[in-house]
Amino acid sequence: MTQHNLPAENRSPTGAIFHIAFYKFVLLDDPDGVVAHLRLLTENLLGSILVAGEGINGMLAGSVVALNAFQDALIGEDYFAGKFIGIKFKRSTCTTAPFGKMKVYKKPEIVPLGIAGVDGTRTGDSVGPAEWRKLIAEEDVVLLDNRNSFEFRLGRFKNAIDPHVTNFRDFPKYVLANAPQWKAEGKRVAMYCTGGIRCEKTSAWMKDMDIPVFQLEGGILNYFQQIPDAEKDWEGECFVFDNRIALDTKLHETGTTLEDVYGGEPDGEWRPRRAKELDASS
Hints:
This protein is an alpha/beta fold. The chain has helices spanning 31-41, 64-76, 129-135, 149-154, 171-184, 197-206, 219-226, 258-262, 270-280; strands spanning 17-25, 46-52, 55-62, 90-94, 102-106, 125-127, 141-145, 155-157, 188-192, 213-216, 234-236, 238-239, 246-247. The chain folds into 2 domains: 3-106, Alpha-Beta Plaits, CATH 3.30.70; 125-280, Rhodanese-like domain (Oxidized Rhodanese, domain 1), CATH 3.40.250.10. Helices cover 30% and strands 22% of the residues. Helix 6 links the parallel strand 9 and strand 10 (213-216).
């Protein structure tokens, strides 16, 4: 896939394309209507947006002009009645076109924790990147990587714990198994994930466990964006769920391949083959 798969109006004169990631937990009374409206707003973009009664979760690629227009509409259009004011957009440049088509669709959850009734707006304490650096250096903090093991293996915050999960739905089992010990030891939990959404959902579920829970605001991507010397706290790369595969701490694409990412995984042969099949059908 090349940059030329993008619609002509979605490319700058130099052909440059950019990526944004965003989400927000907010009550949506008419998810189907939001889906239809977002399809109109993304006609000149590529990527995917999930919509549910609990909010939206999206990744888009396009020119600066096209992405700015989308962001302004999501925040300011009367149709959305201010529901997305305050939403955070993480932006990075692209060498590889991240997506081959545009998809907006409704799901039961915008991130599937697999536990019914979790209110994603009721999260733990969100910690900005500068404060995060100080927090994870404290001795009474358990630093949890809230991602899959193949993501952890590719890159992680130093001294982070890998819960050894292959799917986000497995993460609560790890928490339930270890929470009694954390409480007994007076520990605080600090969690991070790629963009922040998995931690928001998990911390909302953990609110009643009597354990102080903190999450990295905007996730790893926001940390890289805000902290110039992020490599002091981070080792390796960050996996991203698009055709760029992985980014370094400067948000630049690396030479990592799908085979590098999934090598050693139980389904390590199936995952890259499926990803390539989906890319070819885009």
